[in-house]
Amino acid sequence: MRPAIQLYTLRELDEPLPDLLRRVGETEFEGVEFAGLGDSDPEEIRNALDEAGLDAAAAHVGIEALEADLETVAETYDPLDCDRVVVPYLDEAEFASKEAVADTARRLQTLAGRLDERGIALGYHNHDHEFADLDGRTAFDLLADETDFDLELDVGWATAAGHDPIGLLGHLRGRVPLVHLKDVSGTTPVELGDGDLEIQACVRAAREAGTEWLVYEHDEPDDPEQSLEHGAETLAELLG
Fold first, then answer.
1. Average pLDDT over residues 63-88
2. Which pTM does this prediction carry?
């Protein structure tokens, strides 16, 4: 299992993406998960990754972009050796009923099939609203049951929703190559170690579930530079 950072964490730093990659490369992180490339050319990013000694763990891409022009998405990330694309968010309405979940599952599964033809694996990243109760089962459980693509479990949001991320990781063994390691206090993202997350237990469970990349994310860091350093040092200790 290797440490990476979701670059959304650093979005408030007013720097071009190649410069952000150089920053990350100076830490213990070994990979990055993209949240778009901004104005940067993929070949420029490829060079920046090589110079920083980083790998592309995955890329977050909105479902609208995938449905509108999947070929362009594939061509954008191919030079980066990025073979995993994750839908980062779907609205609460997509999980409001069993029928809505079934429609969402079909929509995502169709994309998974199209991406698989290009050698790209699809994933879906949860927040807390996917854990809405639908007659005794969560929408997230129903989505998992009705699909076979990867699920990028965000253990922080699962915790915020009142669910046990350790049990979820065990249930999703073999389907969670990417896990977001995020801490929360209630429903508020905080620095690792300052919230409710059972961090070490989550890391053990992720390892047992076959996770390849442990991805650090902080949605609202007060100091992105400090959060980058703290996240890198914490994951290095946990994985050391």
1. 97
2. 0.96
